[in-house]
Every structure is written in C-alpha cells, then in structure tokens.
Amino acid sequence: xxxxxxxxxxxxxxxxxxxxxxxxxxxxxxxxxxxxxxxxxxxxxxxxxxxxxxxxxxxxxxxxxxxxxxxxxxxxxxxxxxxxxxxxxxxxxxxxxxxxxxxxxxxxxxxxxxxxxxxxxxxxxxxxxxxxxxxxxxxxxxxxxxxxxxxxxxxxxxxxxxxx
Length: 164
Description:
transmembrane helix, transmembrane
C-alpha cells in the first residue's frame, strides 16, 4: 500500500517501527539487568498507563504488566516510525527526489524523531503518560534505550542497502 507522499506502509512504517520497538525492548531488558533489576521490569513499566495504581509494582511484573508494556511500547514505536516516514517523505519531496544524501538524511531524520520521542515522553506529556522507564533505570540507561530505538528506525533501510 502506497500513500500519496510515496510512503509504503510496510516498508517505511511497519518494519522500521517493529525494528525500533524490538531493539529498544532488548535495550530495556539489558539495561534493567545491568541496573540490577529484572529484565522485565523496565519493559513492563509503561503498563502504568493502564494500571496507574500499580506503577511501582512493575519491579516484579505480572504477565499482564509485561504483555501490556510490550504492546504499548510496540504500538508507540510504530507510531513514531509513521512520523519518521512522513518526515523522510517530505524531505525527499522538497529535494525534488534527489537521493544522493538519502541515507544520511534518513539517519538524521531518525535521530530527530528519536529526540522528539524522548522529549515527548519526558517533557511534553504529563507524568501519568511517561513510559515509566524512570521507575527502573537511570538516565544513562534511558538514553541507551532511545539510541537503540533510533537505530531501529534506520536498520531496515541499512539492511536493504547492504543486501544490494
């Protein structure tokens, strides 16, 4: 399926969103363990959107916390990938389809999308709708999670390029 801006839903939104969600979920789990927590604790943290009274109980998450956290995180990753795909499409159109700087531009826009996601998650939204990573991870580990997210936004395109 292709949109009027030349956005392919699967190639430009779903695959990067899934990759960003999976890489950042892996980073959450690794960082959780590095910080002496259960790997599932920071992954489950966003479940506080659904169960606000249980936000601090995700240190020992129940399956419903983990599944809810995974689902919300993956859906939000796909949503941010959609915003990134729109930014890439607009940039491509403004460059009159010249693609000499395509991969560099894509990486820069993924970095900008990642910064927007982090700012949205921790500056714009009310505390009730933060991802909740801060309940389980120090800032340096949260930064690593967002770096993994940004890498996931460009990974499918870099893999496609290396396959050529």
